[in-house]
Amino acid sequence: MYNLVIKDLKLGINRMFFVFPALLGLLMLIPSWIYFLVPMYFYWITVPNMFNNFKTQNDMMFTSMMPVTKKDMVKARVAVIVILEILHIGFAAIFGVIHDLVYANLNIGYQFFAPSMGFWGLCLVMMAIFNIILIPMYYKTAYKFSVPLILATAAAMIYAGIVQWVGIENKSMSDIFNVTIAEHIGLHASILAAGIVLFAAFTLTAYRIAVQRFLKVELL
């Protein structure tokens, strides 16, 4: 499985997609921006280009001729997706910390969620929703990715839109995420922990469903 991951990372993915997370993370330095958009570029740019590249290279057929099981093929592909997701969230979080340091002495009014531990927990839930839809749907054919990608992206964006709307309309929630963050650090840590657990659980579930579906796919 390790060799399959390395194959995908070295041969199947353009190296620019390892740089994009750092470049897109710079958007976190924009004061009072819609920071939910930063990890969404993973859905809009990285995933479609990555899957299209695999399809163009006929990677599935190539990999199926190697002495590996279908289970390992799915596991490796899911691992690659998770690695890229972590890179996007990780760099965004790093620049989020830099954002806090740069604007620490400025009175910035946040209409949307400020970067915080709780916010990153919400982002991980968004990634979890994306994975639980994209991965199992894709492995029904292991070839067609457009519809699974559109539905997964739409679901993640709807989730983010609803959560952000509640954060704007509900003053208590807005204060917790934008004004009194330090006073609710325990709550933010809990939201982050819940986000990590949900991300892991949803992704693992998506992987297991994908394996079962991929075992029924005949590779010609």
Automatic annotation (TrEMBL):
It comes from the Bacteria. The keyword Transmembrane applies. The keyword Transport does not apply. InterPro entries: ABC2_memb-like. The chain crosses the membrane at residues 12-30, 74-98, 118-139, 146-167, 187-207. Keywords: Membrane, Transmembrane, Transmembrane helix. This is ABC-2 transporter permease. The lineage of its organism: Bacteria, Bacillati, Bacillota, Bacilli, Bacillales.
